[in-house]
Amino acid sequence: MVQDGKAKSAKKGKPDLDDLKQEVTMDEHIIPLRDLYQRLGSNPDRGLTSNKAKEVLARDGPNALTPPKKTPEWVKFCKNLFGGFALLLWIGAVLCFIAYSIQASTFEEAPDDNLYLGIVLSVVVIVTGVFSYYQEAKSSKIMESFKNMVPQVCLTLTAKRMASKNCLVKNLEAVETLGSTSTICSDKTGTLTQNRMTVAHMWFDNQIIEADTTEDQSGVQYDKSSPGWTALSRAACLCSRAEFKPGQDSIHILKRDCTGDASESAILKCMELAVGDIMGYRRKNPKVCEIPFNSTNKYHVTIHETNDQKDPSYLLCMKGAPERILERCSTIFIGGKDKILDEEMKDAFNNAYLELGGLGERVIGFCDFPLPPDQFPHGYPFDADEQNFPLNNLRFIGLVAMIDPPRAAVPDAVAKCRSAGIKVIMVTGDHPITAAAIAKSVGIISEGNETVEDIAMRLDIPIDEVDPRDAKAAVIHGGQLRDMTSEELDELLREHTEIVFARTSPQQKLIIVEGCQRQGAIVAVTGDGVNDSPALKKADIGVAMGIAGSDVSKQAADMILLDDNFASIVTGVEEGRLIFDNLKKSIAYTLTSNIPEITPFLFFILADVPLPLGTVTILCIDLGTDMVPAISLAYEHAESDIMKRQPRNPKKDKLVNERLISMAYGQIGFMQAAAGFFVYFVIMAENGFMPSYLLGLRSQWDSKAVNDLKDSFGQEWTYFHRKTLEYTCHTAFFVSIVIVQWADLIICKTRRNSIVHQGMTNHILNFGLLFETAMAAFLSYCPGMDKGLRMFPLKINWWFPAIPFSILIFVYDELRRFILRRNPGGWVEMETYY
Questions:
Q1: How confident is the model at residue 161 (pLDDT cuts 50, 70, 90)?
Q2: Considering 4, 112, 187, 308, which one is annotated as catalytic?
């Protein structure tokens, strides 16, 4: 918060991250109300005058989140129409128009090729720009409406728009960044776990009891008439805000929906099974005063009027963090008697707490205190603000431990992350023992890896004597993190591969993200609260929870998990890698045909031969036959190694690199060019012009004045017949490129796998093969194409000369990938694996 008119930052209004990392001490929840009214300058009885309200509004602004600055729509449209690659296309179109103008002013019958090309380029860039703007605007509207959707609608959106991915990505750049993620900082509750608490154990009368959550209570291991159980169950029933939603009497208790948080709901269901009719019990013992739970106090207090008509009195109940509850107690209730809470009993408490926490269970402590009737007579005016009742020297009665089971898909997802070279860090507010147990159960701390505490326990030595570098795993308490310097945090992140941060605050999550980024990691971080927003913004990929997340966290995030499931992040990473891979494949396919398109013009100029390939036929390739196959590669399935590779380094591994250019231009491209020239020379030779005779023939060939040009056998050719032959060669060269692009499309399906292993299950790609073949045949044989596009029908045997080159390309690349798989990291991989 900004106070006293102080600026947040001197740098263009950007927030100071150091301020965001500070832990704010707040006492608004615990000071008396009259002091709070005085501090805030408010009065709930009289309210504010109109002038005072206007003054406060002008000073503090409305009580609403400041919406982020939005880019004007006309700027977005201009960026899509003139930004990036579109600018190059505009330049190309302008140059084409200039070239046509020069030709038109120089020649009487200027060719229209440049005019057509300029018009086509202009239309392409306009259509692409409008479509991109439409897609961007549509995505923005989706995100605006998403904030108001209920979870059920979100899941419907998942089914319709994201299939089974459960990831809503707010911009395309986030998808690409997600694919290069190297570190994931994940919350525990609800993300790694199911957020479905169930009471598993209880501790009372100095013994740990396994809870029975069966309908008939057939597995009860304790005496329900014992004073210890009676006291604990009474406090658990009364000190709670959770209630069953109405209209669920016919539903199994464990499956009923409740109001209240997950922990209170779990206790309510357990007590309903064990005691029965909790709501009736509460009505008999009405609540007269309450201090709600908050993160500062970490306890919840209720005071109830007991149902003993003969001796009416009040009972104070308290529940909360076990260590906070214990420090407010002076006695402990065991075996029906109050005992002094001495060191022996504290040790018993700690042992039980450690054992339950070690099982990965969330533990809650309970205490009570019968208020003396002489000090608190019937009708006593309890005041939660003044706290005119005791909150110390209470009686500890027991512990209730709940298990929040890990999501079924999380262990496999964590294992997949490990094989993909992605470090998974747990960041939670739970006790370190509970956090470590859950981390081990889902594989964040792998089997066999020890923490400092594990080593100390195994060697029976103090923790201080253990070298932290001997432990591959680390569990760090928020208090330890608070005392760490940046250098110590960097060393921790560098030396340990498996890390759990427990009892952390949202501010510390930002510190952890910054530490990971200092190591050069691409960080994805999850968050669901308002205070998580700085960490979500700072991370390379901020991931908000779609169900449990606040609007602020969704606004700050780059991606939203519609099912709040960690496994969906890993699915998103895999999807990001797949998109990047498929973009590479599509670019490799598209670039390859540039060589057989360019070399005819170079040969036309350098060898002075008749033009082998025309401008219009190039457009037919780039905007016709290549379009559907290039797009179809985006639908290609992932290769087997996609989650076995190390994360991509965005600074070094670009979309187009030297190896891709070498493969597309230097190897496959020249094979395709050879196919085109072979067909060109075959047709010319069949019609009397031998290859050697064509050299230096261009000037006579293109001269309209020459109508008696002799071929290699002495036959005379008029200008019209020469041009007909030339355009036939253009068509044949075009068809040869289509044929070798068959092989190019198939080999671009994979970068490492064999085509035999990958299969031909991409039906869009299979359609692309048929589409480009059908389109080539249509352009060659459709009547009128000789007038419109200067493409002439081919003899059927002129389709075949390019087929051996297509087979050569396929065999060559299969052999290259075979060597690449047999010798990973070898010369072939270093030079050709793009």
A1: very low
A2: 187
